[in-house]
């Protein structure tokens, strides 16, 4: 029994994986690596097939929250480029049967860089799924429906997958900000972060979190500066600049939910507050934020920060 939550399925996949495995998963139609199996390899074909089934189960669970989630025909490939043509038939039921059987050129194994990276779409859906599950199991179930209603209303006017996934995060932030106080927001995000795979330990959680968000193309670049005046006091404060950040609007401010989730993953015990969203040089895509960690402060700005 794999389990019914996204966290259970992801843990099952990670338990099946072997770093030196010769088998990996791809979409038989597009060649893309399907999340949450990106970067995972498996020792033999039966194990890889079990992983393919778990991957489909994971994506089916996400689709309950977002019907727009891309559908993949998950197949097993071997390191030397040989694919398993019948795998798409046994794993996925949402495609033309036998589509991979006529492939003349076998899929080439991805390089190390592409195998370890996650797309913006998959990252957003993983975050959203973790938050939705947490909300559904909390005393705030009505918030889940409100988030979906807001998202579906926004999605009617958008066609591109990248834009849709960003609007999903934005709709979540709108309803969490509107319906929950900061302490409840912090509890939801911290619990959601626990559902995601644990990153390796790092001495600089903020740097690690920002690097992670940059790797999924949530922004082009960032700068991080420790605020010198507070080096000798208990509160730690940093000024963060995000370039080409698509979740900022001059009239409303900046959605900070992805950054908060990543910080909770890397430093779950550290109280967090985010403030002072200022557009740089009048731009609505480059923003400056202040991130604080202090045991004396109440959480704030974890889902969004109004523009200054």
UniProtKB/TrEMBL annotation:
Superkingdom in the source lineage: Archaea
InterPro entries: DUF7551, DUF7552
The DUF7551 domain, residue ranges: 120-306
Residue span, DUF7552 domain: 5-79
Polar residues bias (residue ranges): 83-95
Annotated stretches, region: Disordered: 79-115
One Pfam family matching this protein: DUF7552
Name of the featured protein: Uncharacterized protein
Biological source species: Halostagnicola kamekurae
């Amino acid at each position: 029994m794999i389990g019914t939550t996204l966290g259970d399925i992801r843990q099952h996949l990670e338990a099946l994986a072997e770093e030196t495995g010769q088998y990996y998963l791809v979409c038989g139609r597009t060649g893309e690596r399907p999340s949450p199996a990106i970067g995972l390899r498996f020792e033999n074909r039966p194990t890889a097939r079990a992983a393919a089934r778990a991957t489909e189960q994971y994506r089916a669970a996400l689709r309950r929250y977002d019907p727009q989630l891309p559908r993949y025909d998950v197949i097993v490939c071997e390191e030397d480029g040989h694919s398993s043509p019948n795998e798409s038939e046994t794993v996925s039921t949402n495609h033309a049967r036998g589509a991979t059987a006529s492939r003349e050129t076998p899929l080439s194994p991805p390089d190390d860089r592409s195998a370890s990276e996650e797309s913006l779409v998959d990252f957003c859906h993983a975050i959203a799924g973790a938050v939705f599950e947490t909300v559904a199991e909390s005393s705030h179930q009505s918030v889940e429906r409100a988030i979906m209603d807001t998202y579906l209303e926004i999605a009617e006017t958008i066609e591109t997958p990248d834009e849709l996934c960003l609007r999903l995060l934005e709709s979540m932030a709108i309803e969490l900000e509107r319906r929950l106080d900061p302490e409840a927001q912090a509890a939801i995000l911290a619990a959601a972060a626990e559902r995601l795979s644990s990153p390796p330990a790092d001495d600089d959680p903020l740097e690690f979190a920002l690097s992670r968000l940059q790797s999924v193309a949530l922004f082009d670049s960032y700068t991080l500066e420790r605020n010198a005046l507070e080096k000798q006091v208990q509160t730690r404060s940093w000024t963060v600049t995000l370039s080409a950040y698509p979740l900022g609007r001059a009239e409303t401010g900046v959605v900070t939910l992805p950054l908060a989730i990543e910080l909770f993953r890397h430093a779950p015990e550290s109280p967090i507050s985010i403030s002072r969203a200022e557009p740089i040089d009048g731009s609505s895509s480059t923003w400056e934020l202040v991130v604080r960690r202090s045991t004396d402060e109440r959480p704030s700005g974890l889902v969004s920060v109004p523009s200054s």
